[in-house]
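pipeline: protein-struct stage 2 | run 1193 | Serpin (Serine protease inhibitor)
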Amino acid sequence: MHQNMDSHFFIDNKDYAATSLALSNSTSLTLVLPKEGKDLRKLMEQKGFLQNLLEDDGDGAEFGIVNLSLPKFKIHSKLLLADTLKAMGVTSLFDTAAELDGITDEKPLFVSNIQQETSIALDEEGVEASAYTEIGMTGAANIKHPKILHLNLNREFLYVISTRMDGIELPLFIGVCSNPAS
């Protein structure tokens, strides 16, 4: 478990506590711990939840001392996206009549599967995250008395790695660490 106490912006309300840590190259790691008895998935379904987290002046954001206890973790996921895309109406890519001219002279050419894998590892030295998609084809100001937030991520929590582009915070990775003790 990594311990850190430093000054950061944070949100501490009746539903959750959250803070963001600067990484590098305009990227940050946002950590969200639901309050005891609160369901993280229900929080994530609330309209505007993610947007509020990623805004510097999100509702209820304060500047103060964050006493952070953060576990080491590694998470790997693999998603097969063909069925999801078909359910969303993207069907022509998977049909033998797909118009994928310019890729190859081989006919018929169509997408047979789409797979995305992501991996994130966090330890005392930092965060390492990677993702790839495979498409298979067939043929602040100082505060005199800062508040202190104690954020012990010892139960299920949300993490978001984002980057700032043109003044907008864009999420790159979003995930849930379901069992930080393991």
